[in-house]
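User: Hey, my collaborator sent me this sequence without any context and asked if I could get a structure. I don't really work with proteins. Can you help?
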Amino acid sequence: MRPLLVFLTLGLAAAAHATPSGQVLIPSTDLQPYKVLHLNFDSFIRTQDENDGRRLGPMVMAGPTIGVLPYDKVRAEAGFDLLYKGVKELDNNPLYFHGKVGTPEKSLHEWSPALALGVCNIGTKDGLTNQDMVYGLAARSIPKLGRLSFGWYGGNGAALRDEQNRVANHGALASWDRTMEELSKKLWCAVDYQGGQNVMGAANLGCSWAFSEKTSVILGYDIWNNRAVAGKNTFNLQVDINF
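Assistant: No problem. I've predicted the 3D structure and written it out in structure-token form, which is a compact way to encode the shape of the chain:
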């Protein structure tokens, strides 16, 4: 196949983050506490057939994240995921790494936002899975309104491209999230957005239910910015467990 056609065939199944602590899909300023191990099990299911009549299979992802710094004002986490997308060339290289360092709200002064700097989607196959995304985020909680987060990301232009095979390796990050205490302290909802005409760009919305202090499930919906490379929209189901 021509290089562009190969890129599109692989790209249609490549849209999912190797998961740092996050919102529905984008990273957040949250970080795992020191020595607390987190396991995530995520799946993405297409809502429609593609324009050529194909129904892409589900994407599934699982992996650990652990807090690695013993400080209150500066935290860090690291982890990896195994990500399977139903494409042989990608599934032969399923390992992706991620890491993040940051500081919580009010750590610098009364009105200081939470800050985070991280990397994700660090794949192991050069030119294929190494999206190598770097991002920065700031977040602030507003009483009754919830938490607002804003940031920016950039990545490897060889792996993050649009349907014309043009480099599309950066964009904005934004989110709103809130615990819906009026209904239940166990219910959390969020809307997030990642810019870019690549396989990662999307608007996402979802809600989480905490079955216990250590276990929660997110049900979400993903509206991809560029369905020519990311494929049709998806439902996502995420199970999160802390040890």
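In plain terms: The helical segments are 3-11, 88-91, 227-230. You can pass these tokens on to your collaborator as they are.
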